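Let's sit down with a protein and look at its sequence and fold side by side. Go ahead whenever you are ready, and we will take it from there.
>
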Amino acid sequence: MTTLKQLEKEIEKIKNRNLRVEADKAWETSYTRRILLTIFTYLAIGFYLVAIDIPNPWLNAVVPAVAFMLSTLTLPFFKKVWLRYIYKSKNLRKKF
């Protein structure tokens, strides 16, 4: 049988886990993360275009970096649609 002390330890573990999950979610949806990913995408593509000797590599690297940023900004909308219409209906089917 579990003691009160063991239950308190378990609750504390759950609270700590919840804090980590909340922090991870905050990071995943943060503008800081999106901006960093856009910068890293721009740099990676820019260096690649320089390596393969494309004219105006740094100017040409702007397009995919901006496209990536725009895609990350639209994803929350599509996630809400997916959760509402697809995920919800799949879970309802499982219950019946």
DSSP finds four helices and no strands in the chain. Residues 4-95 form one domain.
